[in-house]
Amino acid sequence: KQEVTQIPAALSVPEGENLVLNCSFTDSAIYNLQWFRQDPGKGLTSLLLIQSSQREQTSGRLNASLDKSSGRSTLYIAASQPGDSATYLCAVFSSGSARQLTFGSGTQLTVLP
Amino acid sequence: GAVVSQHPSRVICKSGTSVKIECRSLDFQATTMFWYRQFPKQSLMLMATSNEGSKATYEQGVEKDKFLINHASLTLSTLTVTSAHPEDSSFYICSARALDSWETQYFGPGTRLLVL
């Protein structure tokens, strides 16, 4: 059974700092990995999707990497802003018989002005 | 991009009543829809997978008689929480998978359920 872990659970940084969020998964048989943002009481906003054949994806100040063999992904946020404050969720789409998304527990990010 | 809506966005009900939540794919057809539950400060847990025209597949530990799922068309799935109790209070999120994009799920905005 796929398990997804995110470290740290919470992170607080001053505005302008670069930061890295970590995600690890136990089963490397995946189709893709996705990073989401969730604001309090809201749904999910998809940030980046990395296919299993890809190593990284970039969108603006965000860069996500994927090392499938080691079961790891990172989300790099450059020049953080208070508006980046949210919970960031990592989700893995497994290629086994389950073929479903498995979510990590998230990292709650607070960017201090 | 593909849009998924949920209705209602928030509902408060008395213990013992039933609540229906709708999930609609607005601009695409979804053969498969997923229902998730999220407790405060926790991640999304898959409750069930529904395919249009067939019975839903429930995850282990999810009571199918309590959480009734109907996927009557390619654009609509409903989740009915029957005889709701305070412990059912949670954030319910649906997602939909398009016919031609089986690796991608589009998420709805969620429904906050509070059972008094």
Account of the protein in words:
- The complex is a heterodimer of chains A (113) and B (116).
- Chain A has 113 residues and is mostly beta strands.
- Helix content of chain A is 0%, strand content 59%.
- In chain A, strands 2, 4, 5, 9, 10 and 11 form a six-stranded mixed sheet that branches.
- In chain A, a hairpin with a 4-residue loop joins strand 7 (62-67) and strand 8.
- With 116 residues, chain B is mostly beta strands.
- Chain B is built from no helices and eleven strands.
- In chain B, the strands form two sheets. In chain B, strands 2, 4, 5, 6, 9, 10 and 11 form a seven-stranded mixed sheet that branches. In chain B, strands 1-3-8-7 form a four-stranded antiparallel sheet, with no helix packed on it.
- Chain B is globular.
- The termini of chain B are far apart.
- The A-B interface holds A 31-32, 36, 41-44, 46, 49, 89, 91, 93, 100-106, 108 and B 6, 34, 41-46, 49, 91, 93, 95, 103-105, 107-110, 112.
| Overall average residue pLDDT of chain B | 92
Order of helices and strands of chain A: EEEEEEEEEEE
Work out the helicity level of chain B. under 10%
Q: Any idea what the shape of chain B is?
A: globular
Strand content of chain A is: over 45%
What's the total helix number of chain A?
A: 0
- pLDDT < 50 runs, ≥5 residues of chain B: none
Concise summary:
Chain A has 113 residues and is an all-beta fold. Chain A has strands spanning 4-7, 10-14, 19-25, 30-38, 44-51, 56-59, 62-67, 72-77, 86-94, 101-103, 107-112. In chain A, strands 2, 4, 5, 9, 10 and 11 form a six-stranded mixed beta sheet that branches. Chain A has a five-stranded antiparallel beta sheet with strand order 1-3-8-7-6, with no helix packed on it.
